[in-house]
Inverse folding.
């Protein structure tokens, strides 16, 4: 049985929902308190045992490469100022995993972004983690998916319950429950009309895929919004073979959305001892 060792993190999207903040900086580098969104995601991968991170990036996303690389000038200055804790923290970031970068030349959709990583992934199962979705969980969400993969040996998507009226914003699965957290997927539909949604289980940025998916993505079939959709490729894979949904335990934040980003910030802030009291008092006051 091949282990899931690699995670593909697509970060080549335009981030138009977060303009003007994303005019000159990557959305994935926006900070939730003092860490960029992308670092939360890489930390989740590493805590789940992932050894190699493959970023699918683009020309406007250099800051991400710099963030996960060494910065000798900063290290030199921190050493001079004897800022040991900060120095350790900075060094840890570049040592967390092996980082590989591939370029998606035009943002043709999530499915196309994943296909760009084909040669680096090779012939083994791999995780996919959306570059702007944070999941705050005791057991890393991607680890929960890998556990399902290890058991059933086929593709797994991470899902969470969303309100009925929001189903049209997501990929929605039609589940056959195996237990309260795991289901086999009968079908999966990208952004269904609310009345046509087969459940409230929404696909939320975490996947374990097998290399067979590249044969489907390679056909370059366009779906919703004229983009090459990962959901459509997974739907075809499920029709031919099988697929599973893991209702992970954890709180999901789509940080490409401004309100969700604010909620993520408040969630992590109230968990930090130094902010909890003053922040709660302030929120009450306003
Ligand atoms: P989104 O669906 O949030 O798209 O992508 P986006 O283009 O970044 O943002 P909006 O909708 O214009 O605001 C989810 C993840 O997939 C990546 C994005 O960078 C993000 O991390 N992505 C999306 C790609 O890498 N390539 C693409 O072609 C599309």
């Amino acid at each position: 049985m091949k282990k899931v060792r690699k995670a593909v993190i697509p970060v080549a999207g335009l981030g138009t929902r977060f303009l003007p903040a994303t005019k000159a900086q990557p959305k994935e580098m926006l900070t939730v308190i003092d860490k960029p969104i992308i670092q939360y995601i890489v930390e989740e991968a590493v805590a789940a045992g992932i050894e190699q991170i493959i970023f699918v990036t683009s020309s406007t996303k250099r800051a991400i490469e710099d963030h996960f690389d060494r910065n000798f000038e900063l290290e030199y200055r921190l050493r001079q100022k004897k800022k040991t804790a900060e120095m350790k923290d900075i060094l840890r970031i570049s040592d967390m995993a092996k980082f590989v970068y591939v370029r998606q030349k035009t943002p043709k959709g999530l499915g196309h972004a994943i296909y760009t990583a084909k040669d680096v992934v090779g012939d083994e199962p791999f995780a996919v983690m959306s570059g702007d979705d944070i999941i705050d969980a005791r057991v890393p969400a991607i680890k929960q998916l890998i556990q399902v993969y290890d058991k059933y040996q086929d593709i797994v998507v991470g899902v969470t319950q969303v309100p009925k009226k929001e189903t049209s914003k997501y990929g929605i699965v039609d589940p056959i429950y195996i237990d309260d957290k795991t289901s086999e997927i009968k079908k999966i539909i990208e952004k269904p009309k609310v009345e046509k949604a087969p459940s409230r289980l929404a696909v939320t940025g975490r996947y374990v895929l097998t290399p067979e998916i590249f044969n489907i993505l390679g056909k370059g079939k366009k779906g919703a919004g004229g983009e090459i959709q990962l959901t459509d490729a997974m739907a075809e894979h499920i029709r031919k073979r099988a697929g599973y949904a893991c209702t992970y335990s954890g709180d999901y934040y789509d940080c490409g959305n401004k309100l969700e980003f604010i909620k993520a910030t408040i969630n992590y802030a109230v968990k930090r001892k130094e902010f909890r009291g003053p922040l709660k008092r302030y929120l009450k006051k306003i």
